Amino acid sequence: MAAKESFALRLYAIRENKGLSRQKVADDLGISRASLEYYEKGKRTPDINTIELIADYFGISIDYLLGVTDCQSYDTDIRQICDYTGLSKGAVEALHECKEMAKSSEYRAILNDFIEQRRMYTLISEFANYRALTNDIENLKKECSDLMKKENVTVFKMSKTTFDSDEYKSLSHETSNLNKEISNLQDKIHNMNKELKLSLLSIQELVTNYVDPRRYAEN
User: pLDDT at residue 1 above 90?
Assistant: First the structure.
């Protein structure tokens, strides 16, 4: 992604995420609202001094605004860790807090074991699968609901149409097709719910095995 496009998208996103209006940000930065809107829409690119002003205002790095890194932090060490691991700034800071708590060698050994064990990746993968299934089921439910509404409208039209007329037959055919689509979607939802339950059981088993305190009990 080009720096200009990245700057526009990220400026808009971070302002929206912070719940700030264009007018508020423009006033605080000492620029016009129209200029800020041009920046966010990629119609105009500010000079380096304005980019630095915007970065300071939001507490993020210029490199992040320009798309050089996906980490917002000013801290170059944190940015390098984010870029190397793909973790977010928040995740890196959370790991740092764990380090501060790890005063004993036993604590550090357990923490390292948690991260190094390949089962962690299996667990993360299963969580991702569970979330994907959940989203897919919700989308199918919405699609099914929309089809049911459409079917109800068609049935209502049939009730107002002369029986055995061409329009009635057409509506009847449409209703039959809608019913089949709804039935197919309901079958998909049913099967995916079964997959969801299996995924949840797999997560529970992985968590139980992964964090079993007996693995770290003293001999």
Answer: no
